[in-house]
Amino acid sequence: MRILKVPAPAKLNLFLHLTGRRPDGYHNLQSAFVLINLCDELVFELIEEDEVRIEILDKRAGASFLNQKIDIPDNQNLVFRAATKLKEMAKLRGVEISGVMIRVEKQIPLGAGLGGGSSDCASTLMALNKIWNLELSCEELMQIGLSLGADVPFFIGGKSALVEGIGEILKPFHLNPLWFVLINPGFSISTPQVFTHPKLNRNFRVMDSDAIEKARAEINAGRFYGSNYLESAAFEIRPELANFLDFAKPLQLRMSGSGSSIFSMHVSFDDAETTYADLLAKLEEQKDIRSYECGVYKSYEKHPIFDVI
User: Fold this and answer.
1) What's 179-298's CATH class?
2) For 275, which of 66, 136, 244, 267 is 20 to 30 Å away at the CA?
């Protein structure tokens, strides 16, 4: 196998509660993660040269310049770091591997709270494990992934989960099929800036098993549970998000991750389509968010990469 194409889906945080701050400065959390059918595509091609090459292209329909290259320094590029780490591990184990050219075709916007970088990283680890015949277990890939990003293990696990710790603890969280209307406002929000902001919600609490089961039942009925603790800080950084959520009432919207994307949740496609039309009308009426992408997406029961590898 010299060429392999794999998907890298986005995720949504259906709720996100902070449960405490660790000595290393990171925050522990409890959050329900779900995969949706908004996907980047990664193409891996083995090459003769003993190196890792990366090309990232903007494939979003709303991109200013379709197929424009996105430049990310290697030390900040999770795909490059994942490939390099596996390459070094292979050499330490005496496994002979080829170099690789990786083309990342971006559909997931950057800095949007959708986990695009972490998902690309996870798909890179899983794809190279296959194409390089490394035979690493899922648990081994998760450990490598955690060293690269807190959300990476979730994507390797590949199904809806209650995520705890900094992202390394995954618990089963079965969800029925759900539909989402997703709005990306055309700007990004810095995750470190959100977590260090003085307005960050630090009313730490831990959900017990009864609360977790209640959350699951509410979500399966198409109702939000709890909150996203990061909204208060993100809305201070980009107040136009808060203004739009207020303007869009009574539509129920929530921010994913540290922002900037916001979404509604539905148990049927018809309900999602109705809300989509309502949101488009609201977006045309307001003046805070002028450059946006909006679409309807469905949850995945499992990571679509499992159908490929």
Assistant:
1) alpha beta
2) 66
